[in-house]
Amino acid sequence: MTTDPAQPQPSTSRRPSNIVLIGLMGSGKTTVGKLVAHSLGFSFIDTDEIIVKNAGKPIPDIFAAEGETGFRQHETAALQQLLNQLQQHAVIATGGGIVTRPENLPLLKQLGYVVWLYATPNTLHHRTAHSDDRPLLRNADPAGTLRNLLEARADLYKLASDLKITTDDLSAHDVAYGVSESVRVEFAKQSA
Ligand SMILES: Nc1ncnc2c1ncn2[C@@H]1O[C@H](COP(=O)(O)OP(=O)(O)OP(=O)(O)O)[C@@H](O)[C@H]1O
Ligand SMILES: O=C(O)C1=C[C@@H](O)[C@@H](O)[C@H](O)C1
Ligand SMILES: [Mg+2]
Questions:
Q1: Any binding-site annotation on 28?
Q2: Ligand 1 close to Cβ of residue 27 (< 6 A)
Q3: Is residue 159 classed exposed, middle or buried when 0-12, 13-18 and 19+ CB atoms within 10 A define those classes?
Q4: Pfam families attached here (predicted)?
Q5: Buried-most residue among 71, 163, 177, 179 (CB within 10 A)?
């Protein structure tokens, strides 16, 4: 388990007891998020699911009809919706591009403790190659796209997160265990 807490740790004393997962497509936010929620007895929320429900159509159709800009507007609205109905004890998986709008970064931290699931583009490519439901990877060079997205977003993930977990050599269950144990310690500190 490789974790990297060596980044500025904002005060979390008044933040809700939620876990927010960020990272590129295929980093495991949805898969790991469900496992963490199950193991901690938390509820599970996925911003991609909220967007699909609100828009009444799947993500590729939203991109086709409204472009990436339209999708990003739905994404910010989903975060605002979550903050307006703020829950405790939830695991919130996000979409891979949630950090690309600067106004989303403070919203993520207001929602909870933010964990960046990191993997190399090669790993991400292997994990996403079987599926066609990610519009940004529907092109001739999805591995190159993932490399470019990592380059463009890495600093944003770092800025937005309280903790980074490198997942390349870990099963989804191992990652979930690492997240659960890290947040147990964090939430115990907060309530001390
Ligand atoms: N640590 C892991 N080891 C092996 N496979 C994994 C791991 N984490 C996730 N996967 C697999 O990778 C695929 C993508 O995972 P998942 O959909 O959870 O990613 P995501 O971060 O939610 O992506 P997106 O940003 O597109 O929503 C799934 O098939 C999942 O089972
Ligand atoms: O990384 C991204 O920009 C995306 C990731 C997915 O979770 C979806 O939110 C959508 O396919 C866009
Ligand atoms: Mg997901």
A1: yes
A2: yes
A3: middle
A4: SKI
A5: 179
Is 18's C-beta closer than 6 angstroms to any atom of ligand 1? no
Domain presence at residue 108: yes
Identity of residue 131:
S
User: Per-residue b/e over 15-38, b at no fewer than 16 CB within 10 Å?
Assistant: bbbbbbbbbbbbbbbbbbbbbbbe
- Predicted TM-score of the model (pTM): 0.94
- 3-state SS assignment for residue 3: strand
Residue span of the structural domain in which 176 resides: 15-191
| For residues 24-48, average pLDDT | 97
Alpha-carbon distance 33 to 145, whole Å?
24
Name the domain count of the chain. Answer: 1
Q: Which residues pair with 49 in a beta bridge?
A: none
26 is in an annotated binding site: yes
Measured from the alpha carbon of residue 22, the closest ligand is 1
Phi, psi of 44 (to 5 degrees): -120, 130
State residue 110's pLDDT score: 97
